[in-house]
Structure formats: C-alpha cells, structure tokens
Amino acid sequence: MEKVTQLDTFRVMSERVGRFNVQGKRFLIPEMNRFSSHLLAGVFHSFGVNSEVMETYEGLDLGKRFTSGKECFPCVVTLGDILLFMKKERERLGDRFDPENYMYFMPEANGPCRFGMYNKYHRIILDSMPGLDKVKIAALNSDDAYSLDGLIPREKMWDFRKAGYLSIVVGDILDRLLWRIRPYEKAEGMADTCINDATERLTESFAQHSSENDLSPILGDLIEIVKEAREIIDPRIPKRPLIGVVGEIYVRTHVKSNQDTIRTLERYGAEAINASIGEWINYTTYEQVRLAKSALRLNLKRFQFKGIKESLFRYLKYSITLFYQYMQQRKVYQRVRKYIDIEEDHKIGHLEKVLKGNNTFSFEVGTEACLSISSAIELAHRGYNGIVNIFPFTCMPSNLTASIAKPLMAKLNIPYIDISCDGSLQPGREAALRTFMYQAYQHFKTHGRP
Ligand code: SF4
Known about the structure:
- It is a single chain.
- This protein is an alpha/beta fold.
- 57% of the residues lie in helices and 9% in strands.
- The protein contains 16 helices and nine strands.
- α2 packs parallel to α7.
- The structure holds iron/sulfur cluster.
- The site of iron/sulfur cluster has 12 residues, from α15.
C-alpha cells in the first residue's frame, strides 16, 4: 500500500479545496439561511452554473458518525448534508454515479476561529470514502472579502458579484418581512406560505435576470411580494415586545439547527429580528478596508514605497466595494420601507464606534463577537425589549459574546438569554425562553418599544 505523507495531505488540500471553475459541474450549496441560499443558487443558474441547494439537517446522524463531538456544530451539520446527498445520488444513479460531476461549495474565514477548517475536515472525510475524493470543494475566503476570482470567468465576475450581493440583501429582506408579519398574521400559516412562495418566485427571477445588466425586474418582483405580504397583517393585533437576535451566523440563521428559536419566541409573544447575512458580508469587506488602512499607515511610517502602493490599492479597492455594498443595500431597503416598516441594517463602522465607546471588546480581535457584542449594545440603547444570543455549543466567539454581553445587558436592565445548540433537545429550553419573554414583556410595559 502506498504510504501517504504529510506533504501529500497538504497537496490534496490545495489541489482539491480551492477556487475551481464551476462550469459544467453540479454545484452543491449547503443551506444556511433558507432564503439566501436558494436565491444564490438562482444567481449561479443565471450564469450558466447548474447549482442546487442540498437538503439540510436530514443527514445529521451521518455528520455525527464522522465527527468526534469536538467540532463546531455547523461543521457537523454541513458534513451530514454533503454525505447524505452523495449517498442518495449513488443510490439513485447506481453505475452512472460519477463523483467528478459535482462540486461542493464550502466557503471559509481566517482568523482565530475554526470556520477555515470545515472544508479541510470535510475533504479528509470525503477522501476516506470510495470515489468521493473526486468531488472537489470550492472555497472562497473572507481574506479577500469572498472574491469570486477563479470560480467565475473574470469578465463575468463583477456582474456576478453584483447579483450575488443583491441575493443576500433580498434574502435578508424576506427574513425580515417574515418576522414582521408572522406575529400579526390574520390566520395561522399565512405568513409562512407567503414567504415560501416568494422565495420560489424570486429564485426564478434571479435565475432569469442576474446575468443581465439591469436587475430592476428582480426588485420589481420583490416590491410586489412586499405589497402582498403587508396585507397579511391584522391591524387589530397590538404591538409586541421587540427582541433582537445576535450570535454565530450559521446557527442563528439555520432554522433547524436552532430549533426555530424565533418561532418559539413568537409563540410566547415576541416580535423578533435576527442579525442579517449582509452584516457579515459587509463586515468582511470592512475588515479588509481596516487592515489595508493599518498597513498603509505602517508603510508610510517606514517609507516603504512598494508597500505604500500595494496597501493604497487594497484600501481603495475595498473602500469602493464597501461603498457599493452599502449603497445597494440601502437602496433596496429604502424601496421596501416605502411599503412596510422593516428594520434597516446598521453600518459596520457604526458598530465599531459603539464598541470603542463601550471599551469592552475590540475589532482588533475580530470574529463575530465584535458584531454580536456591539449589536447587543446598540439594540439595547435603541430600546429593544430583550436580546437573545444563539450559537453552537463550544463556539469560541459566541462564548466570548456571552461572557461580555450578559453582564452588560444586566447593567442596562435588558433581559438577555444565551441559547447554545448542539442538535440535542434541551428539556429546560422552552421554560427558559418563556421566562425570558415574561421579563421582556415587563420591560415592554415599562419602557415601550422602538
Ligand atoms: S464561529 Fe464558532 S462555530 Fe463558527 S467556526 Fe468559529 S468557533 Fe466554530
């Protein structure tokens, strides 16, 4: 038997995890946020990529079988998704199953966190199964604000990025629309049906128009959906306490992983708003601007002209990207807000200021903790009636958030609860959420809501 050396393992990581041309492959997207994942698949379709969102959470047992229990929960869930998908394809196609036809999408982030390791770990597991070493893993990295270089032909990259970002914003808006209308719906189930239909319609719209220069037909469809959705609200239902949700991006947005915490909160009287996916995308771009600015300062101090040129170029590139993202996001939110009062997203620079003012954590440390802590403070100051921090059990940044945000919220007299998730059903969870909502209601009675 051939001996596998450490060098071979590193080579595999660079040869079979990275930026590969996705044309001609079935491009498999794991579901995180229900809406954005499908809309993004629509964007890929428009650019000629045969993409699909894999069924999610059904393969959790498989994911658990190939992990030790120490991995981050999102790593386990997504591993289960890809293993189950491959198992079913093998069964469906029999001899015609060709693993080379598939490409699995698993982005990553660098920094003091383990998200950068998921695709490497998934690679090791796929390589241990007959034939699945041929399934390449397409990875994008937060280090360059998820640039699509290498995945999509260069000449199409800008158009793709524009439509891809819009799909994230529209996905966030569908979420906010659902949380805005569901607690006040005229009849149970109307809001869910409306938003599920809307997702299908918009996925179709993204598939049809993303590669065109003009994305306005997509926005036109969105506005029609918004107008239909607002009719679901029963104006006789009184306003409820407003709850802000922060935490780790995957688990807080993956409804099955967090056991639909927002629905439970609504059952006990809340109107809840989760942090958006757009926030994370803007944060990764903002982080590049911040790093380029520090590098530029350093190079100027040292008179290093090559470094000055490079860091200035990076600074301008990411500043323009961030400016464009904010502009596009604001434009879409403003159009929607003409018809319904959903929350707008805050700017990342503002969150950094909030954190600096509070002096309890720093953007220098990075990770989602800097977003979650600053958002919790911001929402508390804006008069929200309670804060929920949802995260995977053992998540490092979220435990940091919990240790800092909890005493801060106590000082501000804002009800606060940590919800950690690992796939098990926790018997006290429902009672804890009910108690939290009781406190939030007391806060609401005393202070009102924004
Ligand atoms: S944020 Fe938490 S769950 Fe995600 S990779 Fe980092 S430690 Fe793991």
